[in-house]
Amino acid sequence: MTVLLDPAQHGPGRHHRSLRAAAVRVLLGNWTGNATVPSRSLYPHQWSWDSAFIAIGLRHLSPRRAQRELESLLSAQWADGRVPHIVFNPAVPCGAYFPSPDFWRSSTAGRPAGAPSTPETSGIVQPPVHALAAWLVHRADPAESGRRRFLARLHPGLDAWHRYLTAHRDLGGRGLAAIVHPWEPGLDNSPAWDTALRRVPPAPAGSFRRADLDHSAASDRPTDLDYARYVRLAADYRDAGYDDARARFAFAVEDPGFNALLIASEYALADIAEAIGADPAPARARAVRRTAALTDRLWDEERGIFTARDLHDDRLIPVRGVAGLLPLMVPGLPRRITDALLRTAAGDHFRLGEVHMVPSYDLTGPEFDPSRYWRGPSWFNTAWLIHRGLLACGAVAEADRLREGILRDAGATGFAEYVDPHNGAGRGIRDFSWTAGLALDLLCGHPERAR
After folding, report:
1. Looking at residue 447, what is its pLDDT?
2. Could you tell me the domains of the chain?
3. Is this prediction's pTM over 0.85?
4. Helix, strand, coil % (nearest 5) of the chain?
5. Which amino acids are annotated catalytic?
6. Fewest beta carbons less than 10 Å away: which of 96, 207, 235, 322?
């Protein structure tokens, strides 16, 4: 049962205790015995970056369960190193979610790329937050982690995952990982993808049935036309055997958020390597090179934010989205860039500290929509990442205000999937796992630095 918490009726300490108990109930309720589903309704399987954020929260409840969360996800890793964005639970009927296992056909279409025979998975990826999550989980209980050889067992898979993105996804040849589907950066229907998506012919009407509208209002979700284009992109990739060298990508973009998270995770991977007696130099070198490429390729001086680059015309996409603020958490950015990012976050486009959390899209943009998925609403995971970035660059007061806002909105909405940035109304699914997990993390104080 969803519990709504009103901080005005309690003191801060009592409210935080109630919020912690409610967050724990959500995480326990969504645990399947091996992993955590994002929700019991709309998302009944295991999602890649969800599990990373969930593990970050679970470490405060049970470090061992947090370890199992990541171990479960990586057990479905492909031989080429990719970590699929969905790991399907065979006990869930195919019709409960679309695209379902019989659409992706990972064990057959993905066999040449090294997909496992079981479990069935999707064939695309999500942002690589996993090494960062693994490092934070380890630090929650180093003794238990060491006893179970958690880092030593995960390191080869995490290293292969980063090497896959370096070797297979540098489609622009300039040192950044490219996304080949709007679902891959996690910001599914961001206006940043609109122009690139117009090149994609939609899948025929009637060739698929959306299951998401059974659980969420159509006004909150991507449009039918956008969804048909997502289906077309996924089907084309599948029909090319999920082969990054052979596929003809109608959508190929260098995204700043995806690459910022990869850089942060490279530094975490280096710390993991050092902790187990392996060589940290390769991961650190990749992080330094990718940081230089990020600044060179995706910094938009005019707009004061990082923007995505469309590889079809090799041009920056001239819109401001929340992904462009995520490099705040990247070590070693020039101070002039971090200062510009802080000004942009506080300015009219995002109004950090004035609205609820951090809008997913430019508040002044003509495409802004306060309720439709990633076209404007504020999300808890990106707010958590920006909170971490604010601390990393010394903006402690701004980080503290954002932290309190995240906790307030999590409790007031019953751990909603996302909120309207203007009025804080909860949108999407309630009892959402990463909302509960990240609220639990913030309740335990300032996050540790990844390095």
Report:
1. 52
2. 7-443 (1.50.10.10)
3. yes
4. 50, 5, 45
5. 188, 417
6. 207
